[in-house]
Amino acid sequence: MLLALSLLEEPERTVMNVAQVCGYRDNSSLKRAIENFAGTPSLASIRDQSFAAAFDGFLTELRGLRYGTGRRTRAAPA
Length: 78
Prior knowledge:
This protein is mainly alpha-helical. It contains five helices and no strands.
């Protein structure tokens, strides 16, 4: 996800190109993944955010999950 967010900052890249580079089938799959990750409703607002802000959010989420204060988006394996 962090790779996708950083690639979306490059103005010459299309959303479809970023989706393919990151292994998504199409741009709508990438859009849904970004919305789940960042809680942001549109790719346009993702392009307006910086990679640093996304990375800070990622670290906050990671710390929360590690110490039991973060959200869990899917069940842990049994």
